[in-house]
Design a protein that fits this description.
This protein has about 210 residues and is an alpha/beta fold. Among the domains are: about 50 residues, Orthogonal Bundle (Helicase, Ruva Protein, domain 3); about 100 residues, Dna Topoisomerase Vi A Subunit, Chain: A, domain 2 (3-Layer(aba) Sandwich). It has a four-stranded parallel beta sheet. Helix 7 links the parallel strand 5 and strand 6. The chain is globular, with a radius of gyration of 22 Å. The chain starts with 5 loop residues before the first helix and ends in a 16-residue tail after the last helix. Bound molecules: zinc ion. The site of zinc ion has 8 residues, from helix 4.
Length: about 210
């Protein structure tokens, strides 16, 4: 791509560093910014810069936060005896968006993956242990991806905490809502049958399907 302006070229270069953004898309974004008022562009770039400089990670749950402790951890209205263990910040956002969970979180910062060099020391597992030991956590809900690495992480954490008085549960696995039985993979279908629920639990989830 040949540019007649080095300034445009530099901006395109910066945008194309983002995942999923190629040079053409980056150019479209830059040209759009060029059409905007300079005050709007200042506000745009200011928000990005402030976010990068000022965002913190909660010292309790490791979620993103504007303060030392995040809004979820300081909220007295939430159930502090329940902690949902997730891989990353995107998972917190996904679960919060369901509006079905009122407990706290613990962000591990990844899952165990020896092939990628990610061991227990790279994750926030010891801080989870401390949290369970020093606070009144009654239940840990393991909400990790249903993969070999996810299962290994759940198993590892359960072993680490086996002497502490905490109930460890995992999120249910089964056929996706709206999915068709015949197209479900064998592993999921087998697990769904093995972990079947009594009819009393077969209720509509408020906010999801009415
Ligand atoms: Zn927090």
């Amino acid at each position: 791509m040949i540019f007649s302006s080095k300034l445009i070229e530099d901006a395109v270069q910066e945008f194309s560093k983002l995942p999923g953004i190629g040079k053409k898309t980056a150019l479209r974004m830059v040209l759009q910014l060029l059409k905007m008022d300079t005050t709007e562009v200042d506000s745009f770039s200011g928000a990005i810069s402030r976010m990068r400089h000022e965002v913190k990670f909660c010292k309790i749950c490791h979620n993103v936060s504007d303060a030392e402790v995040c809004m979820i951890c300081v909220n007295p209205g939430r159930n502090h005896s329940q902690v949902c263990v997730v891989e990353n910040i995107r998972d917190v956002i996904a679960i919060e968006s369901t509006q079905q969970y009122s407990g706290l979180y613990h962000v591990l910062g990844g899952i165990l993956s020896p092939l990628d060099g990610i061991g227990p020391e790279q994750l926030y597992i010891s801080s989870l242990h401390d949290r369970v030991k020093n606070n009144e956590v009654e239940e840990l809900i393991m909400a990790l991806s249903p993969t070999i690495e996810g299962d290994t992480t759940v198993y590892y954490i359960a072993r680490q905490l086996k002497d502490l008085p905490v109930r460890i549960t995992t999120i249910a696995r089964g056929i996706a809502f709206g999915g068709e039985l015949e197209y479900t993979d064998e592993m999921t279908l087998a697990r769904s049958i093995a972990k079947r629920l009594p009819i009393e639990n077969y209720v509509s989830i408020k906010g999801v399907n009415g």
